[in-house]
């Protein structure tokens, strides 16, 4: 029954999961939505997303070339690794696989949802661990995260005053009444305020909480740089009301953070988007390839981290506390052209440099010749790479053009994403039960995005974070709206 005086839906955190939840709560008829954001500006890590959002089968994929894409689920299960190994007990397996099914089955409609709002997602690339090209971005210069976030924000602003974004508002506590979540307490401008209503929690991961949750769960990662905004993790706010956490040790190391030659020791780095490899880029160590660049991030990072880090036996020794490696990302003219929007920005920032092939060292030139033979189909790749993006250097003839220009930048493995988080279910309800136990939803509390755990297991596939934000954010917003319409019960 509809309540005569329904409370607002409260969304905590204005990244993509929060924006998706806020939008769908309004669509589902919530009388009002209050979006509380700790930072001065909305967007979180979502606004920095650079490669795109994965989805299949979609109208933007090239069916004539690759066939209809039915392998997203399989790729995601494979990528989850030991967390979905054959030995994993049945109730846990079913729960994890249910989340993956929802993620992948709703991926095409997530792409449609964003496209219908006006986001261009017409360019599709193949990222690591994906067996087909399915990561969508726009054709222009605006990176996908910024395009999606700004579009959703503009739509939400049209709903004012039903919608209100409150920035510099840090939620410090979830309020409970009769063992249900009944609202939040937040701090703004030195004052502490309470707000009552159903809560959608979308505060992101803890990859930027270097000395807090990251050090607690993965002390071995100390000294690695990060792509994330530095900020405290919020997982204890959820466990304080009984939420269970899962896979907290499962932290993604992205293989390619840029080492800026002008500021090599900075711990927060620009990401060298995976799409650079997807569009054809290769990785070199001392002039030689070391891995199939389109393996999962977990695998590519491991191969690099098994090499000696800088300053350990290689005579580089720049000093500082950072642990970083000396690997080159190289894009031929074809890959450079295909990723022109990204490359223009990285050139401008001084993160990559243009070089003529003839000015590269002998080993690198020999590697390029060998790789061109692989792309031409004259020989098999020793590392098993079979997708080459738009690489075209030497792809036609017997030798490579020494006058061709390539782009080269130094990269290093970097903390990027936290797979672990709050146990939740297919209705985006936060659970007070462990994975595999009979589900105990915490009334009044939903979650979506990187704060949740249990979907990606050991390794998240590229583009699947923006996807989970949209898929589960929309579910959470809708559920919370229905609760608000019933008076928050
Ligand atoms: P966020 O976007 O991080 O938003 C969380 C928000 O909650 C933040 O604004 C934060 O300030 C706020 N918050 C935190 N605590 C509180 C509190 N106590 N009170 C109020 N507000 C709070 N994924 C992809 O799928 N594709 C990509 O191409 C891609 N590229 C990436 C590139 C970079 C450089 C980075 C860092 C990540 C990338 N990712 C990508 C990962 C993806 O962007 C994030 O995992 C995802 O966007 C997280 O979204 P979210 O909404 O869960 O959290
Ligand atoms: C990237 O652009 O490499 C990041 C993509 C992702 O995290 O999914």
UniProtKB/TrEMBL annotation:
Its cofactor is FAD. Residues 9-466 form the FAD-dependent oxidoreductase 2 FAD-binding domain. One of its GO terms (molecular function) is fumarate reductase (NADH) activity. Keywords: FAD, Flavoprotein, Oxidoreductase. It catalyses: succinate + NAD(+) = fumarate + NADH + H(+). It holds the Pfam family FAD_binding_2. InterPro entries: FAD-dep_OxRdtase_2_FAD-bd, FAD-oxidoreductase_2, FAD/NAD-bd_sf, Flavocytochrome_c, Succ_DH/fumarate_Rdtase_cat_sf. The keyword Oxidoreductase applies. The keyword S-adenosyl-L-methionine does not apply. It is an enzyme of class 1 (oxidoreductase). Binds 1 FAD per monomer. Irreversibly catalyzes the reduction of fumarate to succinate. Belongs to the FAD-dependent oxidoreductase 2 family. FRD/SDH subfamily. This is Fumarate reductase.
């Amino acid at each position: 029954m509809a309540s005569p005086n329904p409370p607002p839906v409260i969304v905590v955190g204005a990244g993509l999961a929060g924006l998706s939840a806020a939008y769908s709560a309004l669509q589902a008829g919530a009388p009002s939505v209050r979006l509380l954001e700790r930072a001065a500006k909305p967007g979180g890590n979502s606004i920095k997303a650079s490669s795109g959002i994965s989805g299949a089968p979609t109208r933007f994929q090239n069916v004539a070339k690759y066939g209809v894409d039915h392998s997203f689920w399989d790729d995601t299960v494979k990528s989850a690794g030991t967390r979905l190994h054959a030995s994993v007990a049945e109730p846990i397996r079913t729960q994890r696989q249910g989340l993956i099914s929802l993620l992948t089955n709703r991926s095409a409609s997530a792409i449609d949802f964003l496209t219908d709002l006006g986001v261009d997602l017409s360019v599709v690339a193949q990222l690591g661990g994906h067996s087909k090209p399915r990561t969508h971005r726009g054709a222009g210069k605006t990176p996908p995260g910024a395009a999606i976030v700004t579009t959703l924000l503009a739509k939400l602003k049209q709903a004012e005053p039903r919608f209100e974004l409150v920035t510099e508002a840090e939620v410090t506590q979830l309020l409970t009444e009769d063992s249900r979540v009944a609202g939040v307490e937040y701090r703004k401008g030195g004052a502490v305020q309470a707000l009552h209503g159903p809560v959608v929690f979308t505060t992101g991961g803890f990859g930027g909480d270097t000395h807090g949750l990251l050090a607690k769960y993965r002390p071995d990662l100390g000294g690695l740089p990060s792509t994330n905004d530095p900020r405290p993790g919020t997982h204890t706010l959820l466990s304080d009301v009984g939420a269970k956490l899962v896979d907290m040790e499962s932290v993604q190391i992205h293989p390619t953070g840029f080492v800026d030659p002008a500021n090599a020791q900075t711990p927060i780095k620009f990401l060298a988007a995976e799409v650079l490899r997807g569009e054809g880029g290769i990785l070199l160590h001392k002039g030689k390839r070391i891995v199939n660049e389109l393996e999962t991030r977990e695998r590519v990072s491991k191969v690099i981290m098994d090499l000696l880090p800088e300053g350990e036996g290689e005579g580089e020794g720049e000093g500082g506390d950072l642990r970083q490696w000396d690997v080159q990302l190289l894009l031929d003219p074809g890959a450079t052209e295909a990723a022109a929007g990204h490359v223009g920005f990285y050139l401008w920032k001084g993160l990559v440099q243009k070089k003529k092939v003839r000015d590269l060292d002998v080993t690198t030139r020999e590697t390029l010749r060998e790789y061109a033979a692989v792309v031409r189909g004259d020989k098999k790749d020793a590392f098993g790479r079979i997708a080459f993006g738009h690489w075209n250097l030497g792809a036609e003839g017997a030798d490579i053009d020494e006058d061709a220009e390539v782009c080269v930048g130094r990269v290093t493995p970097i903390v990027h994403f936290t797979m672990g988080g709050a146990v939740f279910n297919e209705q985006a309800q936060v659970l007070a039960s462990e994975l595999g136990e009979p589900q105990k939803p915490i009334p009044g509390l939903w979650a979506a995005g990187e704060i949740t755990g249990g979907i990606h297991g050991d390794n998240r596939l590229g583009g699947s974070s923006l996807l989970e934000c949209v898929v589960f954010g929309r579910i959470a917003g809708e559920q919370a709206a229905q609760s608000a319409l019933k008076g928050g019960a």
